[in-house]
Amino acid sequence: MIKSKTAANGFAAGTPWVYTDIVKEHFLNPRNFLMGDETKYQADGKGIVGNPICGDQMLMMIQVEAKKNPKTGKKESIIKDVKWKTYGCASAIASTSALSELAKGKTLDSALKISAEEIESYLGGLPKHKFHCSVLGHEALASAIQDYRNHH
Ligand code: FES
Q1: Which long-range contacts (CB under 8 A, 24 or more apart) does 67-72 make?
Q2: Residue 133 C-alpha to ligand 1 middle, in angstroms?
Q3: For a substitution probing ligand 1, which of 119, 132, 139 has the most ligand atoms within 8 Å of its CB?
Q4: With contact defined as beta carbons under 8 Å apart, do 58 and 46 qualify?
Q5: For a designed S-S bond to 130, which of 6, 90, 91, 124 qualifies (C-beta 3.0 to 4.6 A apart)?
Q6: Is 87 exposed, middle or buried (0-12, 13-18, 19+ CB in 10 A)?
Q7: pTM of the prediction?
Q8: Residues of the chain with pLDDT under 50
């Protein structure tokens, strides 16, 4: 384990520089990452957000389908597919990869309730000073859902 010697960028000297194996795996093999031209993806909703802390950006697109809930018999809007890309860092990539997996198959309302803590737990933890990166994907997803609702 490498320990930082300086208190650069606001985190304390001695803070361990550690990503969990799950974070590393999602960073190296991000799920639902959009390869190529986003205009070729048939999105039902699209959100682009920026992180005011670091200036990074995230694009998220969703496909939505109506499905009957077997318990209630009512039709619900379900996230059928998610695609995303970002200028963000390893934490943002791993967090959004996890979020995209958690969001698929959920109703729009349930997907909006996925918390940063849930993503962090899915990844086995994130360094505290990188927590703001995990919010980027969630905000992009909320923006994509809002975009879908504005047009349907
Ligand atoms: S530093 Fe910008 S998203 Fe992590």
Answers
A1: none
A2: 5
A3: 132
A4: no
A5: 91
A6: middle
A7: 0.86
A8: 1-11
Binding pocket residue ranges, ligand 1, CB within 6 Å: 51, 54, 56, 88-89, 91-92, 133, 136
66 near 107, Cβ under 8 Å? no
- Read off the tokens for 105: 């198959």
SS3 35: coil
**Which domains can be identified in the chain, with CATH numbers?**
17-151 (3.90.1010.10)
Answer yes or no: are the C-beta atoms of 59 and 100 closer than 8 Å.
no
The CA distance from 25 to 33, in Å, is 14
- Expressed in angstroms and rounded, the spacing between residue 89 Cα and the centre of ligand 1 is 5
State both tokens at 17: 């520089």
